[in-house]
Amino acid sequence: MRASSWIAARAYADAGTDAHTNPVYVYFGHVLPFDEASARHIMARLEGSAGAIAIPEIVTRLKALQIDLRDLIRDRTRTNLPRAEIAR
Questions:
Q1: φ and ψ of 31, to 5 deg
Q2: How many whole angstroms separate alpha carbon 14 and alpha carbon 4?
Q3: pLDDT tens digits for 65-86?
């Protein structure tokens, strides 16, 4: 690794399901990992999920997360997303 990032193990099953572990964050120079292209990809996936889910409460939560990601892309200092504590 050359920059702050995260690592997770992913598993796939024959039934078409997949899962992964919680991320392990690695920090370089006290810089939080962030990739705008990945955030935009997640936003698109959230939009697709929101369109396929019929439970209003979940759709509302997905839309709120989309807004948080959009805000994070626009201004990384103002967000409701959780921020990791960096050990010093």
A1: -100, 125
A2: 33
A3: 999 888 888 876 555 555 556 5
3-state helix, strand, coil in the chain (%, to 5): 40, 15, 45
DSSP state of 62: H
Locus of tokens 């209003």: 56
Backbone angles phi, psi at 62, to 5 degrees: -65, -40
CA distance 72 to 80: 9
Q: Are 8 and 22 in contact (CB under 8 A)?
A: yes
Locate 52 and state its tokens: 């396929």
Q: What pLDDT, in 10s, does the model give residues 32-52? A: 777 788 889 999 999 999 989
Flag whether the pTM goes above 0.85: no
Alpha helix (H) residue ranges in the chain: 36-52, 56-74
